[in-house]
Amino acid sequence: MGAGLESSTTNRSSMRNRLSSYWEPYSQVPWLGWLVSALIATLLEQLIGTPLARVLGLTKPPALFGLVIMLKEPGLIPSALVYVLLIYLVPIGLVARFGASLANKVAARLLDYPVVLSALVHIALLYATLHLWSGVSDYRLLVVKLTLIAVIVTLSLNVVNGYMGEFSCSHPGFMALGAYGASVFTVLLFVQDSRFGPPLLPLPLVLQHVLFPISLIVGGLVAALGALLVAIPSFRTRGDYLAIISLAFMFIVKSLFENLEFVGGPRGLGNQPDLATLPWVFFWTMACIWIINNFVRSILGKALNAVRDGEMAADAMTVNTRHTKMVAFLFAAFWAGVSGGLFAHVLRYINPGTFGIRKLAEVLAMVYLGGLNSVAGSVVGAVGFNLLSEALRPLEIFKWIIIPVLLIVLMVFRPTGLIAFTELDVGELLKPKVKPEEEVEYAAATR
Amino acid sequence: MPLLRVDSMTHYFGGLRAVHNYDLAIEPGQIRGLIGPNGAGKTTIFNLITGRYTPTEGKIVLEDREITGLQPHQIASLGLGRTFQNLRLWRHMNVLDHVKMAHYSKITYGLMGAFFGTPKRTREEAEIEDESYSLLELVGVSHLADQIVTNLPYGAQRRVELARALATQPKILFLDEPTAGMNPEELAQMMEIIRHVHAELELAIFLIEHRMKVVMDLCQVIQTLVFGEVIAEGNPDEIRNNPMVIDAYLGKEVEV
Ligand SMILES: Nc1ncnc2c1ncn2[C@@H]1O[C@H](COP(=O)(O)OP(=O)(O)OP(=O)(O)O)[C@@H](O)[C@H]1O
Ligand SMILES: [Mg+2]
Fold it and tell me: Model-level pTM?
């Protein structure tokens, strides 16, 4: 029996060795390589996606990597798998593997310039990929936009619940304030509406697009104003008042909008102009990641960690703890408001019911899934949760059993979430995975 | 004129009178000691002066400016730095960030600098980082700069706390039992560091200690506190030979 146990462990470890030796070449692929590969795969899909789907007996290219199809029509699983393999996995794998050395060289070269340049190149590649990929169907476009918006909310809640270590439940309320604030702004100014009358500022569509950010900022500021109402009583004394006050706030905001007839009451508010294009949503998401990451890596931002891990030591070290908490809370609310504004203009209809306890559960799930105190974690959490949630949509009600169970399993095995307590150093992230000298040795060794 | 003056300070915790009619005058550059049995009120005095509690009665004046009732962070930025009896480090933060954090009140780049990573912020944080490294060198832990504090041995954690307190650029440094829990070797090093810091940075030091050797070796003036009241004040020899002090506090320890 002892021998059996031994052989099974050696089996397992040899399997792991084998797996890691397959993975080895891919660990040398820098982000630049992955992004270019993904772009090439989406280009390939543009060219041959539809015909290939037909040949395989699918009516159109699978929207979400075949996940939805597999659950809806199990008979089509082989076709969907072949599609995903031929369009995504094989091309990405090949390009990443054999383009790695070139990608490393280019990535190294890019970092000869300020890191901003490298970041912009990567962002441009990411945008191009998303643009092409989401161009295939309206559904994909919607999923991409909502996922990007989720990244913003998740990050902003992480500032409070992760970096600052307080438990806030008011984010759906802030989203609602932002959504209604931004919607009233654009509907009032730009469109003919049965409730708000003729546009106050009838501008050509191009200018409306240009002015759209103002409405988001208005939404963000309205949310920040609401946050002030929560922050003043919550941060005046020490103690865990925030959880309760913020939860109350969320319900108050919801019933406020249910009772405000001029924004439609419980029936909601529609007719938002179609301004939340992919470029804008993408821009705001990147801006949010950049600004929040800047903030949490500065001394002023790290003061949040100091307050969380020892308020007494923090103020003895000259940190103005109350000011720090207020600023962070309002800052987080601003971003939740911006995400609400984007959300309203993506769906072009909102009602108070959207911003309730279920939204809260989603946002909390994304934050804790991704990991506290981590920008990368929030991005992963939001993207992962959204894709999962979309993929499981065909299961209807069972989706709300499977997702919580998955979350619980995750919490058991990784209690702090996927990527918790890390710092996102963009320069470090975009570095080549192999230095040019090592590259030579590596090539010699594998030959 | 003394750097810091405390006039007849009294503090009650509910019905408990923790400090009674406490007077203090610290001269620039002085090293002072505060001794007394457990529960005498020593830490409470530190907490009162540094703004953690507001005294029930009395007045605290730092260089002509009354600081009674100010917030702890205000008092800290006016020049009262401190360490804690039970280490209070931030458990997810590395050593360097601890020391950088204590420069908080000197930051001028503002929120916009923090959000947008302006050149001003980059410059200022680089300067702060340099200063922080030199403080870490001063207390001998610069090689641990990127370690998370909870991974460090106890003696190193105490040093990090000291470096962090120094980063607030104190005029007076309050040390609450800086050698508590240290082995003889760490203790000797810590005393050396305190002397070094005192000479190098020209600050006044006010320290609470239970180990007589440390207090007697370092301090010029020592107060003995019993039940919240000062029963004796004087230089090490006077304190050592004061019958009241021997009776109330030293008796047992001198024999040891
Ligand atoms: N926040 C508080 N609330 C109520 N009582 C307190 C508080 N802090 C201290 N005390 C009481 O005040 C008295 C003095 O405590 P303090 O901590 O100042 O003593 P100390 O001289 O520092 O003792 P030690 O040598 O053990 O550190 C003790 O009786 C303590 O229980
Ligand atoms: Mg004490």
Answer: 0.92
